[in-house]
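Problem statement: downstream parser choked on a complex file, so we are re-checking the raw output for the beta-D-glucopyranose run. The parser issue turned out to be on our end (a line-ending mismatch), but while we're here, posting the original submission so the record is complete.
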Amino acid sequence: MEPSLFELWETSLDPATTKHYEGAFAQGSGYLHIRGSYEEGLLAAGQDEEYMRLPANVTIEKPRHPRSKWGTYVPGVTGNHPLLREELVNLPNPLVFRVAADGEALDMDACRIKGYSRSLCLRNGVLTREFLWDTASGAVIACRYERFVSQKRRSLIVQRMTYSVVSGKSILHFTSDIDEKVKTNGYNHFAETEKDSAGCRTQVRVKTDNNDTIWLASTALGKGIRFQETENHTLESETSLQEGESIFVLKLSAVCTSRDQEGGAGFDKLAAELALPEDSWKMLFQENQNEWESLWEQAEIQIEGDEEAQRAVNFSIYHLLRSASQTDDRIAVCAKGFAGEAYFGHFFWDTELYLLPFFLYNFPATAKNLTAFRLRTLEGAKQNARAYGYSGARYPWESSVSGSEQCPNWQYADNEVHVTADVIFGIWHYYEATGDKTFLFDAAPVFTETARYWLDRVEYRDDGSIHLNGVMGPDEYICFCNDSAYTNSMVKFALERTLEVLGMLEQERPEAYRALGVSQDFLDQVALVSEKLPVLTRDDGTILQCEGFEQFEEPHFERFWPDRSKHFGACVSQERNYRVKALKQADVLMLPYLFPAKFSEEDIRKAMAYYLPYTTHDSSLSAIIHSILFARLGDRVQAMEFFRRGLDIDLDSSAGGAAEGIHIANCGGIWQAVVFGFAGMLPAYESKTPSFSPNLPDGWKSLSFRIVCQGRKYRITIRGTQAETEEIQ
Ligand code: BGC
């Protein structure tokens, strides 16, 4: 059977890729996320091992748990790790469902399994596993596992297990459990754990070492069988099946936390949510499907003529749809899309630069939540500025839920200050795409406080020049430099917008303006710094990444980086890396990507010619930017090559794929590569009405998608170099 364009398949049992599929098959509802692990786990892959994970560079480290890593995450629920700092906590695993046939426990490694397959339907988020179990006692059992996190009841996990005896007969013993002995990055974050059973439900309450309380409850129901509570608070049942007979079990699990905004929390709440009859699958399935359909109706991109790209784009959109909360503005999307523990659940500039556009032009209300996260965390940013000895607000490189710095490595925490300007860029983009001036005005303190920080942070030299020293740009392989072109450009942008917002506020809401307490001196200073901050150039006019960039040593890739399947960063010491011209990711080239109208084709070509040979693309944030730029230049071959590199990042299991979580920034980048790259759409801050200059890759007969801009909805259809824009209801 030809797999549908909305399915991701795993067709063989390969121990080397189990973990990749756990990430790729992650399911979620914005509120709750689970990794794609087996219901019964793997005997050989215990989940309770404790160890001290060091805050090494995530790009180059070798993670523990090579075989399997369970994950259950509620964004915003965190713990405190002594080295990694605040981290997203892996919650007790409510998926656990074990089965034994005539005493033989099902295990994908140890048992005789035939015809194995798993597929994730991207259209409705349902994960299905099917196989024949050739049991030791001689029975052959067809097993089918289906599950989803309901997009309608966002805290509910629905599982259905079906066992059909194909030949022989068997006594099946079932155990449903919630495993509370899980660790996060090898650390036990549960300060309190309570487990019991009541009314045929397994119940677990844990309190994290960051004071979040989480309640989980599960129930298991089956036609003709009854589950009983055991001393260990598991639910168990047994049944005898003859050849040709089947049985199904419905397991429902619900989660709530002390952070929930509505309806209180506790076991009573969960009991009410789980009070559903045993034949509820169909109803729950349908309501979940309906919710997903309405999301896809807006977000779908149709590519005619390239099924491989279509499938991969669908995969990225699926993860974007699942990862952001539609209702909660107290969280953003963490770097691994809540599908793994790398990067510890922290929030990066990835939100503003890579993720926001997908939401802005599809789901402005969700984009508003993501943007409002920075308004909510302004206080944390102010404390962060104070901690570093500055006035104003300095957004953290890796943000906690409350906005404090959580980056465990000093280089990035101290130097990667561009995030503070990126936050302003995100707010401004939101405003330009939606016209939501109320929100913009509400964000005025973010503009003024971040501006205060910049005024304090720059160096004023006696010759009247102004500089921003000791920073790290997006290229994290130059860890400390002066006058980073990207950083300075974004700071200039942020300061100019600050003056613009304040001007509008003074006119339209004089009282709110006065309440901000900005003086003429402050305004003059903002204007001066935004004007004087330099963006250095090379002799040929190309933007220079930072002062002295040309004096860094040549990286000699041919000598130090012979095996290109590895990251450059994994082949050389950090000491060498930091003194050579190797770039981790797009840096100067972020500028023409962000501001297409400001750069001529000639500018882009020259910058590409200089920087690309030095760029390692060690970061997953790099390839897709190059795809966009090549598409804008009309170089369809290179645009496609970089696009495919982007598509492979989560899908190519041989390079690790999604094992440690989804590279969600890249997923957002893939959407941008289609819309800003191949379709050539100008961002709203450069064109208020949708404007396209398409450059479709060879073989793409047509491309169509919807966008929302300034409250209006459009259907875009592109054929060749022609774009048709139709306003819809
Ligand atoms: C990249 C950063 C990015 C972070 C999280 C790093 O490898 O260099 O730009 O923000 O990953 O995705």
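For whoever reads this later: The chain has 22 helices and 25 strands.
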